[in-house]
Amino acid sequence: MKNNSIILILIFFTLFSCNKNQKSNSEQLSDSLAIYLQRAKDPALPDQAMNNSRALEILVLKRNDSINRQNLFEIANNYFSLEKLDDFHKTNKIVLKRAFESHDTVSIAKAYRYQAEYYKTINRNDSAFYLFLNAEKLYLKLNDKINLGKIFYKKGIIQFDIGDYFAADLSMTQAYNLLKNSDDKQFVYQTLSMIGIIANSLEDYDKAIEYHTKALDIVHEYDLNENYNQEISTLNNIGGVYQNLNNNKEAVLNFNKALNSKNLDKSSELYATLLDNLAYSKLKLKDYTKLPYLFNQSLHIRDSLKLQSAIIQSKIHLSEYYAERKDTILSRQNSWEALSLAQKIKSPIDILISLKQTSAVDHERASIYSKQYIKINDSLQQAERKSQTKFARIQLETDEIRDENDKLNQQNRNLLYFFVGTLMIGLLLFVIRTQRAKNRELLLKQAQQKANEDIYSLMITQQNKIEEGRIAEKKRIAQELHDGVLGRLFGTRLNLDSLNKMNDENSVSKRNNYLTELKNIEQDIREISHDLNREKYVLINNFVAILNNLLEEQKASFEAEVFVSIDENIKWESLSNTLKINLYRIIQEALQNINKYAQAKTIKLELKKTTDSLVVNIIDDGVGFAVNGKKKGIGLQNMLSRANDLEGVFDIRSKKGKGTTISVTFPIGNKQTIQVQ
Predict the structure, then answer these.
(1) Are 40 and 51 in contact, with CB atoms under 8 Å apart?
(2) Are 91 and 53 in contact, with CB atoms under 8 Å apart?
(3) Is the pTM of this model over 0.70?
């Protein structure tokens, strides 16, 4: 007994030790993740990016849940703060994929917003704007007013940057209406400031002052963090509005008030801007005290910070000052230096203002500078209109797609209501008819029971007549069966006779395939009729969005898992409409063939760009087929024909049991990049 007790104790401690070790390993992984995330946020450590990458490696291996996605967003934020934009983009793609897998609408919307921030940072405003619209649609669906307001703010910034001030004003107003009661007063302040700045650009100076004053009230009321210099920036903005109103006395008051703030860093860009603005208002007032010292002090700070556009502005203001003081040599010298620097940094706006000032002070070559000014100004206006049209088209197409989806959902709901209503009416009629039949049967039984006593005596005498009538009725029914029902059955049997004689699995499969094919053809005809009407306008203008819709429909309708890889270097707007239409049709036909015949579990779609080609690969792990031994159907022939029409190379590789790979290579040289108007 003693030995047995010792053995039991040893077994218990062994099991306890194993469980403890297992628990320690799991906890160690979580502890490591927490440590790496904490170190990644510590600016005092030199290896923040490395710690962030190690945390990412751990999260990629962990289960896809809400905490996992939240940590991935944290890692993405860290990369963005560290200005590691490629890593930020890569992390966000991971979390976007996981959000789609989990049907997590909140995370999908957030990932869209992060992707939009990435593209905005690398000056791909069209992609950023499209992704902001996608996020807007989801936040609208979620009724998330705060994030929806922030999306409108971001859209307004992009619209302001491209010079579409009216659209920017509308977006910012929508943002303010959604955010004005939120707890994030810093964002409310930013929105009010932007409305004021946009109003100033629209020359609506009363509105500009009104909203800058509201922004200043927010700063004072909620004691916002003074490190951001909100009060100083707003005073500078108000002074700028008064400058545009030619009320330079009021402008000087606001600039001096901002310069006298104790929180102002006298080596900062903001300080240099205030000095230059103050000096310029004094120049307009012909108050030359501390001039040109203030201009030169501002220029010195801007030069130390390498703010090239600001340096150009300072040079132009100095040129105006010396022109006012009749010092032609220094005036021309500063305007020439401004123009030279603007041309060096290739800034069209700076070149324009430099040309304007140079033509004003260099009278000998004024006509040359004026011609250059007109040429560049016309080019800028044309580019600005083109950009505004492009963004308006993106907005319109997104709204159209959204309206179309809403309309389709409404049609589906109406169809559902119709079927449910029809079913309920049918059931009601069936119940009523059944009940009436039962009532008639009951009444008949009662009457028959009563009549049985009266006619019993007549039953014997009428028996022979009844029997004769019964025989005649049987004969009539037999004739009806033979001449009517049997004839119809015989006709049906003849139609199916050829298939009924074949009872193997292949024949059964063929019959099922014929039925499925009829359904598919019906659906295809409906889709083709719709697509023919809209493809020329929708597909061409927004190819990636329409391709994504096709893939979303594929995921929703079929069990095969779809993996998509689209090369970000492909400039879709530069490709011809004909190429995009045929590319879409090839992908659509390939997916339909896979769904019908391949029995695939996974489908991989790759679109990548080489030096002078666009390569499309569609790969499945289905049952495959013998390429050389199988006659090409109309689907494969159509794909081949579309590739040949564009001088492309079509290749299909497949083996039974080894899946199928379809590759199409399109040339995208000068010929293919010409847009069809």
Answers:
(1) yes
(2) no
(3) no
